[in-house]
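Notes, p. 3: input format for complexes.
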Amino acid sequence: STDWTDVAAEGDLFEGAAIGVGAEGRDIALYKTEAGEVFATDNICSHGYARLCDGFLEGHEIECPFHQGRFDIRTGEPTLEPCVDAIKSYPVKVEGGRVWLQIQ
Ligand code: FES
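Output follows (104 residues plus FE2/S2 (inorganic) cluster):
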């Protein structure tokens, strides 16, 4: 569906960091950049079973904690090997102090 799902409080997010949330049976990473932008992708790396919320966020890239591959958090596209397969990204809005995702 294209409904918006409430997944977190805005106050749960910190600039330059990621958190993991469960929503609609998925493990999703929420990111807040140093510039205050919020993005969401699947939380599990496409290379192995690492949770990206445990990785290192730099600008618009998340570095996987297992083998230091990277993804663009805006699109889910891989930006550094060994990550070669994209992960899903989700539309985000922050409204009413809550973080909402379109999970399809
Ligand atoms: Fe993420 Fe290997 S599990 S780079």
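The pocket of FE2/S2 (inorganic) cluster is lined by residues 45, 47-48, 50, 64, 66-67, 69, 82-83 (CB under 6 Å).
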